[in-house]
Amino acid sequence: MNLTAYLKKRKILVNSALKKCLPGAREFPGQIHQAMRYSVLGEGKRIRPILALAACEAAGGKARQALPAACALELIHAYSLVHDDLPAMDDDDFRRGKPSCHKRFGEAIGILAGDALLTHSFLLLSQGPLAPSARVQIIREVSQAIGTQGMIGGQVADVISENGARAAQIEKIHAMKTGALIAASVRVGALCAGASAKRFKALSGYGSRVGLVFQLVDDLLDSDGAVKLYGRQAVRRKAERLTAEAIRSLRPLGAGGGPLSEIARFILTRSS
């Protein structure tokens, strides 16, 4: 398959849905809605929603079944970036080549925009062409992935270990801070399709591994985290091993796992 064309087509689908699902910039109170749209609708690879769509199809569903949930996942990711950029966190003035949300709209609106994106994501998760039982499963899955046992917990561990994390801490932070939401994106896509137990297990194994690979590649790009502990070669070898394991996890899906295999290779080799 042509992965570049695939990702471009999926990104167009996701971006179109994101524009529709967010409150209009002129809706009262306009400033918060402008900040939400500013933070979501800029540049971005849309890896998490694309993983959800691909997993839904791999599990036998249609991509549009997972589109509301996929948009919710991107809003959650955007909220985490808005809050990460705040002065009390990473204190970054720029995000993807433009002023961070709090630099553009002020710190108070930056905090509230992140809150609003997270809240709006659960509205989207409650909607869509799914049975109520499936929506409950999806909301539970996402809540666990982004709470204190997932993304927020990983962020806390990262903040309190800034003066030097041990190897076990680094791996835990990776699994929680970045890996949990990526793994959840894959599982959510599977749930949207009503995946069988066999397919759900295969996709879960894939998601947990590519989530770790994503963070390891971030560390390689930043020369930080695991790279400082293990060195570049060791981190690269681990990322390659996990990628191979992720792709093997997809064997029960047959040809349906093809796009996910290519996405795993893309995550391993990405340059930004």
Molecular structure report:
With 272 residues, the chain is mostly helical. It has a single domain (3-269), classed as Farnesyl Diphosphate Synthase (Orthogonal Bundle). The chain is 72% helix and 1% strand. The chain has helices at 3-21, 30-40, 47-58, 67-84, 101-105, 107-125, 132-146, 151-160, 167-192, 197-222, 226-230, 232-249, 258-269, and strands at 94-95, 98-99. It has a two-stranded antiparallel sheet. A hairpin with a 2-residue loop joins strand 1 (94-95) and strand 2. The protein is globular, with a radius of gyration of 18 Å. The mean pLDDT is 92.
Q: What keyword list fits this structure?
A:
two-stranded antiparallel sheet; globular; mainly alpha; 272 residues; 13 helices; 2 strands; Farnesyl Diphosphate Synthase
